[in-house]
Write a structure and sequence with these properties.
By secondary structure, this protein is of the alpha/beta class. Helix content is 44%, strand content 19%. The protein has 14 helices and 13 strands. The strands form three sheets. Strands 2-3-5-1-6-7-8 form a seven-stranded mixed beta sheet, sandwiched between helices. The protein has a three-stranded mixed beta sheet with strand order 4-10-9, with helices on both faces. The longest helix has 32 residues, at 122-153.
Length: 365
């Protein structure tokens, strides 16, 4: 499972509380939602998807296996991290290995919890972290550019491709704009991805509010939401302290506790779903008497690529994918009903998987 989201932010904003709540929730539901801690600061969490339960009920599956997302709790960054402050280089390297960034912002007042900047201002904090990431990207590109430019002058094709994307990226970063703000062709985007730039990664802002503001947010979270929208990013409002408390409760008490606070579901469910969407992922399902399982692929994946998520032999020997849309699977009460109604399709190698497809792969090796 190679999709992960790095949780970043200044110290004392609630990152570890959020991460611990995520991992505690999954550990408590280990019977149905597999969880494992890979390292002390890394955990995999199930992506909430009620469609899977409905498919499993119809298919009378003995086991339910959801798709997963990996979260990495990265130690607090501080101003000057790009220059090594607060072990910044180590933490920036950890972010570089992630597929996306979940940036936790403090949107609550608490006298007992010191803010490293002396006051609560989530937009300032967001800009502080973004500046450090941009400075790190700029230093990385400038360090490599001279060598690339020399090779490009010698008609090195790969170096020419790199130089063509590095020049506008360096210009944008010097102008205080993140790498993701620069537009490139589809072919050039492949080259950009290889540069592993921090500010090229998709980003989600998590507004950590007080318990009183958990249901509706507050003025700070509203400003963050508006600002995130202007940046082409997403935002989610949660109360990390409440999430930690919910995670510690027995499952039968969680719903009642959430309702008492005016909440329909844990905020963590929104965080997980937003992280999943942020990475440009979609879900397809397989269902049988042994298990119903959700699988993850990137949007635009072909049927053979989806088959490969299950086993490389499935992709290598792909013949066809018997495919039923989720809505048809439910309306026809399962595979047999979908067959009889003509709703099961035989899809070939060029088929692009759609979110919610229930699939059975035919292969021969």
């Amino acid at each position: 499972m190679g999709f992960n989201c790095g949780i970043v932010g200044l110290p004392n904003v609630g990152k570890s509380t959020l991460f611990n709540a995520l991992t505690a929730t999954q550990a408590a539901e280990a019977a149905n939602y597999p969880f494992c801690t890979i390292e002390p600061n890394t955990g995999r969490v199930a992506v909430p998807d009620p469609r899977l339960d409905r498919i499993a009920a119809i298919g009378k599956s003995a086991k339910i296996v959801p798709t997963q997302l990996e979260f990495v709790d990265i130690a607090g960054l501080v101003r000057g991290a790009s220059k090594g402050e607060g072990l910044g280089n180590q933490f920036l390297a950890n972010i570089r290995e992630c597929d996306a960034i979940a940036h936790v912002l403090r949107c609550f007042e608490e006298d007992d919890i010191t803010h490293v900047e002396g006051s609560v201002d989530p937009l300032r904090d967001a800009e502080t972290i973004e500046t450090e990431l941009m400075l790190s990207d700029l230093e990385s590109l400038e360090r490599r550019f001279d060598q690339v430019a020399k090779r490009a002058k010698g008609n090195d094709r790969e170096a020419k491709e790199q130089a063509a994307v590095m020049e506008p990226l360096i210009a944008a970063l010097r102008d205080g704009k993140p790498a993701r703000s620069v537009e490139f062709s589809k072919e050039q985007q492949v080259t950009v991805k290889r540069l592993q730039l921090l500010t090229d990664k998709p980003i989600m802002y998590i507004c950590n509010v007080s318990e009183d503001d958990a249901a509706k947010g507050n003025a700070w979270s509203a400003k963050v939401e508006e600002w995130a929208r202007s940046q082409g990013a997403t935002s989610v409002t949660i109360a990390a302290a409440i999430e930690a408390e919910v995670a510690s409760l027995p499952e039968d008490e969680q719903k009642e506790f959430l309702e008492s606070l005016g909440l329909e579901e844990p905020g963590l469910a929104r965080v997980i779903r937003s992280g999943y969407a942020l990475l440009g992922l979609l879900t397809f399902f397989t269902c049988g008497p042994k298990e119903a399982r959700a699988w993850t692929v990137h949007a635009g994946a072909t049927a053979p690529e989806a088959a490969g998520e299950i086993h490389t032999d499935f992709q290598r020997g792909f013949i066809a994918a018997e495919t039923i849309a989720f809505s048809d699977y439910i309306a026809c009460n399962g595979e047999q009903g979908a067959k009889e109604a003509g709703k099961m399709r035989q899809e070939g190698r060029e088929y692009r998987v759609k979110d919610g497809d229930v699939m059975l792969f035919r292969f021969n090796v």
